[in-house]
Amino acid sequence: MKTITCISDLRDLAKRRVPRAFFEYADSGSYAEETLRANRSDLEAIKLRQRILIDVDKRDLSTTIVGQKAALPIALAPIGLCGMQHGDGEILAAKAANEAGVPFTLSTMSVCSIEQVAEATGKPFWFQVYVIRDRAFIQDLINRAKAAKCSALVLTLDLQILGQRHRDVKNGLTVPPEIKLSNVVDIATKPRWIWSILNGRSKTFGNLAGHVKGMENVNSLAEWTASQFDPTLSWKDVAWVRKLWPGKLILKGIMDVEDAKLAAKSGADAIVVSNHGGRQLDGAASSISMLPQIADAVGKDIEIMFDGGVRSGQDIMRALALGAKSCMIGRSYVYGLGAGGQAGVAKAIDILRKELDVTMALCGVSRVSQIGPQVIVGASATDPSPVRSKPKAARTAAKSKRRA
Ligand SMILES: Cc1cc2nc3c(=O)[nH]c(=O)nc-3n(C[C@H](O)[C@H](O)[C@H](O)COP(=O)(O)O)c2cc1C
């Protein structure tokens, strides 16, 4: 088997080990996948500034995220159906995150329930909530997160209606998985996956089954989501959740300066600049291209997290340089999970850690708090390179810097 050295190796392995419907569920984006691609290409267009002869012998990658210590400036993003990439996927990912000293976020749409993850890990984790039509159920879910001692609540705001992923429709994605003529060969050739799923604690949406009406009869994720997600969602719902949850609150899915300003006034502790990994509004800007202007507008008022397309330590460096305090990691760890369960997630985190460490050294910084626009070509007053030839995100950062 080929040696794993980067996230794309984990992706290749996951593609071989996870049945197509679930691999493509994780891998794909909505509609024509323009935003999915832009998340990557805009990150890659940001060039890091190579510096030499600066003492970078002692490097420290640790930081705080919403006041909590983290060994690295990353948190594992909420991912629906982790437990379909690998049996007990949420528990295994949470354990790998605990061992690496970074937060893990459990999705509302997880396979293992809040209680199962709490019992199996014995450590606090973050819980992500969607406000669905049944508000009493959301209140109950928040109370369950409190009882499980979750240390932050992530409220995702960009799924008031479902953006279609063509591949999910074509693959007829169902939860629990159904063996059909069209997928029998594919599934039969994934014995590790079958074994892990058969031995997993749960095979459907752990937080919802038995709690939400209609969940038992539904045969398509898209159908259920369409019936439950709530297009009437408003800032009043954010205020309502703020009252129910006295702990750290993170608003996820902010892609606009006006929304960021409202979020900063909402009493939340942090925002995640995120377009849901290119899975919702296709045609939306990449999240990295919106980060500098959002950081410029509200960075002093609220902590800023970032996600979308982070596949390397270099990408984490870029996001931190352009105004994020930390990154959420989505597919990078999901590929690890599909490739090798807990060890695969640990590998993904380790790859990102080592890449960030080397990148910091080669850019001449020793601590995460030192990372700023000065590590990006053309983005700071100390770099005289002409700004006009720089990617948009770097130009915005440079302008913000000049204004400051
Ligand atoms: C398979 C998959 C499932 C996801 N499920 C959720 C979810 O349940 N809740 C949520 O807030 N975001 C969800 N997201 C979005 C991620 O939390 C995150 O915003 C995104 O993955 C970041 O982009 P990246 O995958 O390119 O790193 C999901 C993303 C993927 C890839």
Describe the structure.
The chain is α/β, with parallel strands linked by helices and 404 residues long. The protein has a single domain, classed as Aldolase class I (TIM Barrel, Alpha-Beta Barrel). It is built from 16 helices and 10 strands. An 8-stranded parallel beta sheet has the order 3-10-9-8-7-6-5-4. It has a two-stranded antiparallel sheet with strand order 1-2. Helix 12 links the parallel strand 7 (249-254) and strand 8. The model has no long low-confidence stretch (mean pLDDT 92). The protein binds flavin mononucleotide. Residues 25-26, 39, 77-80, 107, 109, 128, 156, 252, 274, 276-277, 279, 307-310, 328-332, 334 line the site of flavin mononucleotide.
Annotate the secondary structure layout:
Layout (H helix, E strand, L loop, with lengths): L6 H11 L2 H8 L6 H11 L18 E3 L2 E3 L3 E3 L12 H12 L4 E2 L7 H8 L4 E4 L5 H13 L4 E5 L9 H6 L12 H5 L2 H9 L21 H8 L6 H10 L4 E6 L2 H8 L5 E4 L13 H12 L4 E4 L6 H9 L4 E4 L1 H32 L29 H12 L1
Parallel strand pairs: 3-10, 4-5, 5-6, 6-7, 7-8, 8-9, 9-10
Antiparallel strand pairs: 1-2
Helix pairs in contact: 1-15, 4-5, 4-15, 12-13, 13-16, 14-15
The structure holds flavin mononucleotide.
